[in-house]
Protein 1
Amino acid sequence: MNALIDHRLRRSWTSEAADAARLPARAAKWLEQRIGQAAPSAAPPADLPVEIPSPKLDESAVNALSAAVGAENVLVDDAARLARATGLSYLDLLRRRSSSVDFPVPDAVVLPAGPDEVQAVLDICVRHDVGVVPFGGGTSVVGGVAALRGEKASVIALDLVRLDALVSVDAESRLAVLQAGVRGPEAERLLGEHGLTLGHIPQSFERATIGGFAATRSAGQASSGYGRFEDMVAGVRLATPRGEWKLGVAPASAAGPDLRQLAVGSEGTLGVITEVSLRVRPAPPVKRYEGYALPSWEAGREAVRDLAQNHALADITRLSDGDETEVSLSLNAGLKTTALRRYLAARGVRRPCFLIVGWEGTAHDVALRRRETTRRLKASGAVRVGKALGESWRHGRFAGPRQRDALLDQGVCVETLETAAYWSTVDELRDDVRAALTASLGPSIVMCHISHAYETGASLYFTVLTARDETDPVGQWQRAKAAACEAITGLGTISHHHAVGVDHAPYLKAEIGSLGVEVLRAAKSAVDPTGILNPGKLV
Ligand SMILES: Cc1cc2nc3c(=O)[nH]c(=O)nc-3n(C[C@H](O)[C@H](O)[C@H](O)COP(=O)(O)OP(=O)(O)OC[C@H]3O[C@@H](n4cnc5c(N)ncnc54)[C@H](O)[C@@H]3O)c2cc1C
């Protein structure tokens, strides 16, 4: 059974409820020098905001839902509804800290126990014309779980937390079927009992779910080795307003377009994913992570391109630009930074760009692949920093969400955004996004890393830190994000792995064309003729 996560307050990122560590004074002072004075904010209220819109779901719908899933699994109390009202973008975190509710809240939270109950809930929602927002881990950073009701009078959050089983394992075919509500760590635990792994480790791994990964075309930190989530999906089972839809019968097929890929990335607009059949691998006995430093962004980008185009990428390949490296050197007390800077300077690397590489597999496989990667890196001018840097990254790989909370406490606006482009436009895209963010925000730190690399290009992941505008914190970020999205449009994709949701929807047409939007709408009207599924998202 999944550990229940408290979605109400920021302090419970995981069920262990680890508190946000306060920023060390040294780090806070360094930040102030770079972005100016930020005004620390009061801790978020422990109690619920005073006024939450009362639920609008009519009694007959509540009764029907209660009959389908049990009355105890239809929650209409304020705390449960508020808990599933937002995702976890910076703007969501601001909303969660506010003492008033100026965002939509679902009228009920419904917790079905399995695919049949999910189908029954959808059937009831069609009959009663109720909107349905599928809710996995609630880690969306693009408004994917916002409780928008569209033209419906009421909307429910369909929380899939009780779909928590490993359904089957076909070790011979290296396939496993997992229910949609299984979270990352539990998926690995269940598969580990069979000596298997999925290898999908996004930064939101601790909270996000199998269904959410599939619905958003997620990409994990080891995507260079294990692939993106859509590469792992062999089959999907969906509940739709028109009935159940199962896809995926063979490892490859020429039976028309691959409709599995229509379901994957559909963000809850075409159906509720209840089960996913996934390609799995033997759990790796050896994991090795290490760090290198490149003398410039351009040198690092070329080194990664060389690896990608010569089949020599490590499973994890992550290149930070000079600013991101500087921030980790300045804020990371774990590294012996002065000695490291001297060591690198002696080798001609004065403004380093760190590259993390990691391999997972058998000892023989790791040794073989590592030899080729490191040989190529050396030829590209990379200076080996060693295992400590790789281990330091591995240790802190899930720290981001907790650090965000600590930074918010300090009055810092902290947010990330991501895109991808072909190698020939990667630098232009990086320059343009950085310029757009800086012009909008003024004094700020804009960091960038290549988070995923491909033969033809790479994804760029930006992290932004700036002093929060206390008078208009929401507008401050909305303007910056719009400027970044404008800069991305035409050069890269509006999302490499965060999906479209509400926030990126205005930019989708520029990427897939009016006809593309029409095709998606036609698919939606085929499976969801009355438009109950996730109103206002994707298209
Ligand atoms: C700190 C942080 C770090 C992140 N790092 C990464 C990262 O490294 N890589 C990455 O890919 N993403 C990352 N994300 C984004 C997010 O975690 C992913 O989009 C994730 O796949 C969402 O999974 P979830 O279970 O939380 O889905 P939710 O947030 O609950 O839902 C996301 C969308 O999918 C829909 N949905 C959810 N479950 C289902 C279902 N069963 N059937 C149909 N629709 C469904 C929802 O309605 C919503 O539109 C990060 C987010 C945060 C907050």
Note: The chain has a mean pLDDT of 93.
Protein 2
Amino acid sequence: MSKAAQSTASPRAHPYPTRSSSRLSASKPEPTAAPYAKERAVAIQAVIRASTLCQGVFKKLVSAETITKKDKSPVTVADFGAQAVVNNLIRAEFPEDPIVGEEDSKDLRENAETREKVVELANSVLDKPLSSDEILEAIDYGMYEGGPKGRFWTLDPIDGTKGFLRGEQFAVALALVEDGEVKVGVLGCPNLPQKLSDPEGPRGTIFVAVRGQGAFERSLDSELETKISVSPITNVSETSFCESVEAGHSSQGEAAQIAQLLGITRPSVRMDSQCKYGVLARGDADIYLRLPVSATYEEKIWDHAGGSIIIEEAGGKVCDIHGKPLDFSIGRTLRDNKGVIASNGSIHDAVMEAVQKVLQKSKEEKTV
Ligand SMILES: Nc1ncnc2c1ncn2[C@@H]1O[C@H](COP(=O)(O)O)[C@@H](O)[C@H]1OP(=O)(O)O
Ligand SMILES: [Mg+2]
């Protein structure tokens, strides 16, 4: 872990009006409020509610000996429930904004038992209970196609379903995209230690960023926000990098070669979900490598929109393996990009050079 991982920024008030309760209201932002103040506040509250819902299911899952890890139903129920909750709250406050969400209600419409569980779960965190039909409709409100013009939200109700089922990391990821650029990002990480150096300490954290306004972290149950920034480290051999737990999502072999080329000796931090972006943004790691395993896989916008703005606003850099910026303007996927490389910024060029060398070598080996 880098030196910055141990340092903690002092909590400071953020420049937005805070709400004294977690109830959502359609109140207008203060006339003096910063740009996107209402979007920021609503997104935080939506992510808190969805995270609370997921956390409840997750705690039961990790404590219940009766549920086998192969049983995917808990994560399915939480996934649909979280999407229904976030979509419902965003639509209530921003009725003009469409949503690009990961899930649709097709499977749920065919399974009455699961549907009833989703309805009960979603209503447990909503102020006004919704009917079964309203829940299905809220889920399908996430079917927008995205694109270059206007604004839309993008949501992964549970990013890292495999981490959720393993009792490890997962995230609720929400972002606002306007004219192709991510403007607001909120990541709820219900099981992430508030300090990576203290895995036994309190868990559950939220990362928030608005374009041009910095990145912040807060817990699920306190409004106090701490400004976060990436590590100041400049000596690449002293850095640590994070990557997926799932070898099928990112090439761990190539990551190890890149680390070796850069002289990195620390073991990689393997973690599921966009929690990796949060960990990098607060300086607990210095590099994030997502190296394509499949030549045809297209990354989804909901898997990177929230995380990428949080890194950028914390002072870091994000691009694909070719150095291209992630393009959120062409639909539901990042089809013009391959993989993701993120860093604290100061070591970015060195990392990119090593990435190019290793990927070029792999390419040559494959063609021999
Ligand atoms: N072949 C793949 N390459 C990269 N990411 C993938 C691949 N298959 C699935 N994913 C996505 O990786 C994300 C989790 O990433 P991580 O490994 O960082 O936790 C999930 O959203 C998952 O999408 P999906 O939920 O559609 O399967
Ligand atoms: Mg995902």
Note: The chain has a mean pLDDT of 91.
Protein 3
Amino acid sequence: MSLGNERSDRPGGGSQASKASQAQASSRDKRPGANFQSLLRLLPYAKPFRLNFIGVMVLVIIFNATNVLQPWLVKVAIDRDLSTVNPNVRGLVFISLLYVGSVVVGVVANYFQIIILQFSGQSIIRTIRLELFRHIERQSMSFFDTNAIGRLVTNVSSDTETVSQFFTNFFLSMIRDGLSLVMIIVAMFELNGRIAGDAMILIPLLFVISLLFRKQLRRRYQTTRTRLSNIVAFLAENLAGVRIIQIFHQERRQARHFDRLNNAHREANVAEYQLSVIFNRTFELLGNAAVAAVVWIGGTAVLHHAILFGTLYAFISYIRQFFQPINSITQQWNTLQSSMVAADRIGQVLMVEPAVEDDPKPVPVHDERIEGRIEFRDVSFGYKPDRPVLRHIDFTVEPGQMIGVVGATGAGKSSIMSLLTRFYDPLEGDIRIDGIDIRKMTQVDLHRIVGLIQQDVYLFTGTIADNIRIFRKEISDEAVIEAAHMVGAHEMISRLPKGYQTPLYGKGANLSMGERQLIAFARIVALGPRILILDEATASLDSQTEELVSTGLQAVSHNRTTLVIAHRLATIRDADLILVLDKGRIVERGTHESLLALGGLYADLHAKSGIEYEPEANVHPMHKV
Ligand SMILES: Nc1ncnc2c1ncn2[C@@H]1O[C@H](COP(=O)(O)OP(=O)(O)OP(=O)(O)O)[C@@H](O)[C@H]1O
């Protein structure tokens, strides 16, 4: 005659996933703002399911009623039909049928109650998760600067899961267990007010014991989770750095450290179970003691003919049922706490508006008519307003030109790129494409015009062809192959076992750096933006790949305004204009030759880069006189 909550010696009960998320939710940053309001703010998501919740309530009432009815039926059978004075076999059969009927109704009600509630809870979470995902995707880069990716992943995955506990477990328990308790109490008072009154002493006692234990259980549970996280973090770091560990012969030391973490986890886990078992058995002990007390008090009453035997039976059954809802309700305290923390964190993310937003009245842009003229007009920028990283940047790139931006590390090269793509907005000045302020275009239009290849070429899980067309179905296979041909990637791709259908794993780890660059070039040709920004990879390539990449670059920049953030000066030797940045300012500008002739910072960088620049250096040794 369980009320649907199976007893578990694991503290907290519930699924592993939910427990993990609850622990995470509670162990991470507990903001003072995490309160019931945070949860209430998520209530509108539940509104479309209000009929479902009402349905669940009705089903819960039916289910509880059948539970309370069953001992009562047995009581009637014993006292009315089994009494030796007036035995009634037909009545007995009728009661048995009613009993079976109530069990069947209870089971069916319970089934639908669980299914409807889970469906509603998970639907709510689905909506919240989708909104979070969309919201995060809409954010500007400054948002990602201040929000660790790991935290966002947790928001979308486990925080939402924790909140779902509120909509399912918490809601269900409050209704089901609260109602169940009330019904049992009413039934007991209905049977015998005196014995029922004595039994009421148990309620505060059970609540206090339960809450005290739960607090401790929660603490131990969190310790176990934290120690498990330590193991996972250590393992991840070790796997990532396995080469270094092997080269420096640190395997034993690392294994010892791992075992310490492992042991700490074992101890925490055993301690957690220990307390959990003590708690459950204490509860059971109290339950049995209560039954014994009822047998004693009720039995005496039976002997004195104060109550009938069936009433005593029903009392014993109700006392047994009595413990489950109290246990379950106190357990919800944890659920409520974790859900509030998780809901607060979700709310914090949902409240952030993107720093870069589209103009409410954007200028319509026809990208096919865009020529690709870029102007930076006295642009100043800082990731934090009081720390400028670009000052008074002023330059123009004519359509189809290639421009190189060079400078020491941290000079502000990538920041220029981030402004042109509107990952950030300038603090002062403006940036124009074909005379249109990019803040006046929608970001969708802008990103159709401006293509970007970042240092670390990002490849998605999928085939090479998928990666070239970035999952845009309207780009045909022929167009993909043509794009690859143009940048000189076709041969390399054809050599792969499955050609264009070769699957890429783990951000394209099965390709070399140069090969990834070529795929990125082909991607640009296939998508065809008028402007290309290339944040060149810092790692040096072998000379053969370097040649492939530079041929690819020539192809991809052909007829396209190209801005190269150059880490290798050789890449931009033929650029129409080179900007030399130093501490956020343009300190020199000109062509490769003119800058070398100037003998300033560029010439300096050039000398340090180790590239020989002698006109004769390009001449084949055989032709030297
Ligand atoms: N997201 C960011 N938040 C805060 N500061 C940043 C951020 N990105 C860059 N910076 C700072 O801005 C300055 C310019 O960085 P930027 O990445 O533009 O330089 P860079 O010339 O491209 O350097 P590198 O050649 O090393 O890539 C640096 O001082 C850097 O620390």
Note: Residues 85 and 293 are 29 Å apart (CA to CA).
Protein 4
Amino acid sequence: MTKLKNDTFLRALLRQPTEYTPVWMMRQAGRYLPEYRRTRSRAGDFLGLCKNPDLATEATLQPLARFPLDAAILFSDILTIPDAMGLGLYFSTGEGPKFKRPLHDEKEIYDLVVPDLVHLRYVMDAVSQIRKALNNEVPLIGFAGSPFTLACYMVEGRSSSDFIRVKTMLYQRPELLHHILDVNARAVTVYLNAQIEAGAQAVMIFDSWGGALSHAAYHEFSLAYTKQIVEGLKHEHDGAKVPCIVFTKGGGLWLESIAASGCEAIGLDWTVDIGEARRRVGDKVALQGNLDPAVLFSNPDTIHAEVGKVLHSYGSGSGHVFNLGHGISQFTKPENAAAMVAAVHELSRQYHSN
Ligand SMILES: Cc1c2[nH]c(c1CCC(=O)O)Cc1[nH]c(c(CCC(=O)O)c1C)Cc1[nH]c(c(CCC(=O)O)c1C)Cc1[nH]c(c(C)c1CCC(=O)O)C2
């Protein structure tokens, strides 16, 4: 078992005592950092950066060099899986991800199989290289998309705001969507377990679009498959527990069912009061979140006050990992991210009496 110099993040996820509230930021490596933009231009484009383990390691470490964050997250993307399935992922500047061969007809859907890990070898290489470079300073988070969120991109072929194709399939040909979701769930399980074997010390499942579903559809088409993954994960590696965080954007109504999925922690977006969330599920899981990323457009004094409100709402004791309620915007000033991290470390000590 490797000993971490700072394991505050892992202890908070396991609801064990800590001296302060650990903090990291979703999308902490990204376009708001000038050094990231330079690394990306050396790689050619975003996907080239994900597929080059040396440059992915460099990007992962950039935010840690600037801010005293309590965790690193693998630099990659959730869409590596559909890419490895042969859908032809590409990113056109300013328009987000697209697929050359989205899933439109029945034959394409029934031909879909769990990809061979050789096509995702570059991700595991990045994980082991990042672990070496981190030198046990802080833990490394691995991640994947939820089966439903991946299916949104695979069926729509690109980002969408109304999800017309995937929702039409859900109501008109549910068996086709169930087939995609089953393949995705098996693929994500194998993929996350490979990241854990390669050195990821916690994993996070991003269900960015589960919140677009109705109550019943969320349970049947999103949570059921996320649960299947959580059940198939390795919960221990190298003598240490490997906690799993489930983040459903817009999932505030369903915290009790998410907590029952078997995950160690729930990621919260900013629409939820974290204290109320704790009263609902805090005896079962840890909570991660949930500052509105837009707070970082303000100024250090406002950021300090808003961080204070989230910490106060959660209250005393362990089980809270501070984060934004969604990814940091590319238009954020890095010094405002620094102010947030400093405020969490300063203000949270009063809530931890040990
Ligand atoms: C839906 C989703 C995707 N990717 C991801 C999600 C789930 C999280 C969420 O809800 O935001 C997850 C993701 N994407 C990225 C990470 C890296 C790790 C981190 O720092 O948190 C993680 C965890 C890098 C990235 N992924 C992407 C970038 C920007 C690409 C660039 O450099 O131009 C980064 C740093 C591109 C990406 N990738 C995706 C989209 C929709 C986009 C375009 C969005 C945009 O333009 O802001 C798919």
Note: DSSP finds 15 helices and eleven strands in the chain.
